[in-house]
């Protein structure tokens, strides 16, 4: 039995891919799909999110974005979304059922300093062979007429995409249910060990759950920000507050990002008219309070980008905890103890990196799996949990 | 039978006082205590809310504030709050059960223009014989250490008070229940008439309500912003958005008000650590959406007054509709049609004016009531619905 600790987008994706391979799987989570995945905006934007020091993260993101269309199509089929959106063309179930869209991200600039930074970023992306287009302020407003008049230029990453994470986790839960994967709604309180070897998980008491322990050949730790507490891995909570607005008609045709008052802000439009504003980044430990200051920051900065947001209704405000790591790269692969596999530390990239993470874990755990080779091997190396063991 | 249309703070107060006099009463409201009273901050601040053109409103407010302590004590007793807070001293049940506090309001100023306006207001209040104290910025911060350093002066109205409107309406509902007053949870769709005379109300279908009509000798219209639709009186909805924050320890010892970016903002501290930020004033018809712009305005302005609010958790955000009138004075007394009594149009002052309104309506409807005389007569004259009939 493979016990997956954590029912967020990572844990559910891993569980789904393992179950598809015919491996026995159980998922443990007291509240599946209600953690960071519930708060996530769902940007699949490795290009516009790149920064100079994070070329490895860009490689991971680009590789995972490439896997998203097939991942979404298969998920839509396994979750029964094909039936709901029956008769539609290829990719339609993923597009309508998961709100997967690939209309690009527009990164905008206000002042002269911002513009200079965009120019440098464009040059850097060129060097990496990434598709971007440098736009004037006028060209930006032609693409997105609701942008503030003060926007002076932008960088369009036409290959970036986005998806609705709540629909994705709902589809994953439906697919797991159809595959007969048990979901244990209890909190994993700790790991069971036989000497060094991890042999299962200990459960907190929960309504309707009789078992107090689950034995496992392998425990896959996908507990997000709580992974550090369970297995001592270097993962810390990074709080994010996010707001969902309701728009009678779509204000934007694509994701829009910018840096306002020194803080990054983004707006993600959904197919149903919802507009997501995100997100604060706060180092406050396990604090999930929605605060006056957090909302103020989001609203102030979003207004600078798209003044029309002020007219929109506030539908939802949530705070979530991203699982941050010291180098902003995830931890995927064999843990220090035999029997423990890590799939955590995805920080801001859990939704984007879910297909790649599930593929790497599945490849490592499938019967007869060898050491990964080629590009997969290189990507796996970047995420290897061993990098922190070597340091310490 | 006296049918009270509207179960907000005004309708419930009128019903309670009439029932106490032994008059037969029924209250009609599809969702009692969930309208403007639910959104209200509960400032009982006639002095600090005064403006030059509104001396009549100040008279009404001061008269009603004077009635609040006895009103609250009797309400606490009738609602059984005395039992809950048994053994405590006089006024304790009202103080603890209704969160009635009388620690004053501090109106603060930032710029030179604001200070000059405060000086003029102080002089005006002096002329009216009202108790106010002009304070320096340092004195303001000595009273309220969490005030922004940029506060340059203030005006303290030590006699102003405040109360928790949600506790007040809950207590009124409890008192009515104990007095056996029926509450019909249906919407009054219109007035029944026999010629000119109002003879009852027509009800919309509602779960558990068999009656489609309620006959009445008198209909008291206390339907707030919806009064205009029901009886053609000059009442319009004035939208207000308000936010409740949760504070581990109280940030403020009294109500604090100020004008920021030209808009008035106030902060009302509750006994349980809650801090209420209010309120937008928007002329948008029957629109109760909480909007991005509304929240932004509240948060931005509250931060200017008390920067520490940014750390507080957001507990609740609501929008309500104040019943505005052309002259900002309420409509209390006989309507144009026989059988119709008005108790509506209280705009921002429903909670403050509830005791006076209930007293005026009760005095007018009690058996053997004569035309009101003395101060009550003068106050009743100010609120008389006849003033709009004479104009038209």
UniProtKB/TrEMBL annotation, chains A, B:
Pfam families reported for this sequence: DAO
Pathway the protein acts in: Cofactor biosynthesis; thiamine diphosphate biosynthesis
Domain named FAD dependent oxidoreductase: residues: 3-362
EC code: 1.4.3.19
Catalytic activity of the protein: glycine + O2 + H2O = glyoxylate + H2O2 + NH4(+)
Annotated GO MF terms: glycine oxidase activity
Keyword Iron-sulfur: no
The entry's keywords: Oxidoreductase, Thiamine biosynthesis
Name recorded for this polypeptide: glycine oxidase
The organism's taxonomic lineage, starting at the top: Bacteria, Bacillati, Actinomycetota, Actinomycetes, Streptosporangiales
């Amino acid at each position: 039995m493979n016990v997956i600790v954590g029912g967020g987008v990572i844990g559910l994706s891993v569980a789904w891919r393992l179950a598809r391979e015919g491996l026995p799987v159980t998922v443990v989570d007291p509240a599946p799909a209600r953690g960071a995945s519930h708060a996530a905006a769902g940007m699949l934007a490795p290009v516009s999110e790149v920064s100079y020091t994070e070329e490895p993260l860009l490689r991971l993101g680009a590789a995972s974005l490439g896997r998203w269309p097939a991942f979404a199509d298969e998920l839509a089929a396994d979750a029964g979304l094909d039936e709901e959106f029956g008769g539609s063309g290829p990719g339609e179930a993923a597009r309508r059922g998961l709100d997967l869209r690939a209309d690009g991200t527009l990164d905008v600039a206000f002042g002269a300093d911002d513009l200079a930074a965009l120019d440098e970023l464009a040059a850097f992306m060129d060097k990496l062979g990434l598709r971007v287009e440098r736009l004037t302020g006028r060209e930006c407003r032609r693409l997105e007429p609701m942008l503030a008049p003060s926007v002076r230029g932008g960088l369009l990453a036409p290959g970036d995409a986005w998806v609705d994470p709540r629909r994705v986790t709902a589809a994953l839960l439906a697919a797991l249910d159809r595959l007969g994967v048990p979901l244990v709604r209890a909190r994993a309180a700790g790991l069971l060990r036989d000497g060094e070897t991890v042999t299962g998980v200990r459960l907190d008491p929960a309504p309707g759950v009789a078992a107090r322990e689950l034995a496992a050949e392998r425990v896959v730790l996908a507990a997000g920000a709580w992974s550090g507490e369970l297995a001592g891995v270097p993962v810390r909570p990074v709080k994010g507050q996010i707001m969902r607005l309701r728009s009678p008609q779509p204000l934007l045709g694509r994701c829009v990002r910018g840096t306002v008052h020194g803080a990054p802000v983004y707006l993600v439009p959904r197919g149903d008219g919802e507009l997501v504003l995100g997100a604060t980044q706060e180092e406050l430990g396990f604090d999930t309070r929605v605060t006056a200051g957090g909302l103020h920051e989001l609203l102030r900065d979003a207004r600078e980008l798209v003044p029309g947001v002020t007219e929109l209704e506030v539908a939802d405000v949530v705070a979530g905890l991203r699982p941050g790591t010291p180098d902003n790269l995830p931890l995927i692969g064999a843990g220090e103890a035999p029997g423990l596999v890590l799939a955590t530390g995805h920080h801001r990239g859990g939704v984007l990196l879910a297909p790649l993470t599930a593929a790497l874990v599945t490849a490592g755990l499938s019967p007869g799996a060898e050491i990964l080779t080629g590009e997969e091997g290189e990507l796996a190396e970047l995420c290897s949990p061993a990098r922190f063991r070597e340091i310490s």
